[in-house]
């Protein structure tokens, strides 16, 4: 791993964007490996949806994969087709150990869409917990299955599911770099931007329609914002020196960025259209990698003002900064959880760069990864998981770990490196 200063320089001096701006399908899909389970698993029986063979993707298979991947459910195979209107022998399912039962059906509509009907049953109380129907186009059947899995997750855990969210990351294959967007399960990969040079620091807008990133098209680092629906993009920061580390405010009105226009890299804010630049820090060190808190009241950032890289917090309008991390001499890349309770970051200890989480209420710190070259953590929008970049077989890979460290996933592509992950927000 490189020094703190060199890492900052490299992260802000990369990316040359060329080629199509519209999102196009990508050929390689992410492959997911799962290890570990939650401290307690909820046994759920999932019956095959009636007539689901007519859909392009099998609804129940996607639901099972989502719930399995979460680590919080034990899937019980129903071994039968059960519709949402079928009579259910709850005693039989209780004997099989199922606390909940998922049933449903698919019907083809006259306009070519599929009417996907789903019901979640509580076998212990012999009652219905939830259910709905969705008229899905053929290309949206996978999304519909994710929404059903989200509903199951929320009704049984009390936490909103994140299976229907998206992730963005950078893939390098040969000499080409691609900013790619995929479903949270790695399917449906789309290329948002192609480049002959690295692309870095992608950051989702709060509404999930835009991504900010750093490009080097002008032979210097420049911050862009790109609309993922239309491909339209706009320069947000192109000042003297480096323009780096964009991070959106929760309401989407501003970006926190790092600029070296006045000498050492410092934190600034700028309106989403590039206007209204405001300097937020004025330290004698390097201040970079800003991140808004979920309520928009604070900004966490990285600074070496104390002699080594540590994480600080300040008001979102600037002012006095307070140091947050004290364990270890090298802590970088702050990310704050949606509920504001947990700070994730990369810490170098005994020569290893690993993912840590700090409970900001209790002060308890926990190491979440067992690899040695980790970077770029990103919380899931429900706060239950953290995605980060690491290495696997000398290639860049993505990993996901639950905030308690018990559930782990690894995401790889067949050929190439994956870096710079960022987990998108809940979609409305």
UniProtKB/TrEMBL annotation:
<dbReference type="InterPro" id="IPR014167">
    <property type="entry name" value="Tol-Pal_TolB"/>
</dbReference>
<dbReference type="Pfam" id="PF04052">
    <property type="entry name" value="TolB_N"/>
</dbReference>
<protein>
    <recommendedName>
        <fullName>Tol-Pal system protein TolB</fullName>
    </recommendedName>
</protein>
<feature type="domain" description="TolB N-terminal">
    <location>
        <begin position="30"/>
        <end position="128"/>
    </location>
</feature>
<dbReference type="InterPro" id="IPR011659">
    <property type="entry name" value="WD40"/>
</dbReference>
<dbReference type="InterPro" id="IPR007195">
    <property type="entry name" value="TolB_N"/>
</dbReference>
<comment type="subunit">
    <text>The Tol-Pal system is composed of five core proteins: the inner membrane proteins TolA, TolQ and TolR, the periplasmic protein TolB and the outer membrane protein Pal. They form a network linking the inner and outer membranes and the peptidoglycan layer.</text>
</comment>
<keyword id="KW-0132">Cell division</keyword>
<dbReference type="InterPro" id="IPR011042">
    <property type="entry name" value="6-blade_b-propeller_TolB-like"/>
</dbReference>
<comment type="similarity">
    <text>Belongs to the TolB family.</text>
</comment>
<dbReference type="Pfam" id="PF07676">
    <property type="entry name" value="PD40"/>
</dbReference>
<feature type="signal peptide">
    <location>
        <begin position="1"/>
        <end position="28"/>
    </location>
</feature>
<keyword id="KW-0574">Periplasm</keyword>
<comment type="function">
    <text>Part of the Tol-Pal system, which plays a role in outer membrane invagination during cell division and is important for maintaining outer membrane integrity.</text>
</comment>
<keyword id="KW-0732">Signal</keyword>
<keyword id="KW-0131">Cell cycle</keyword>
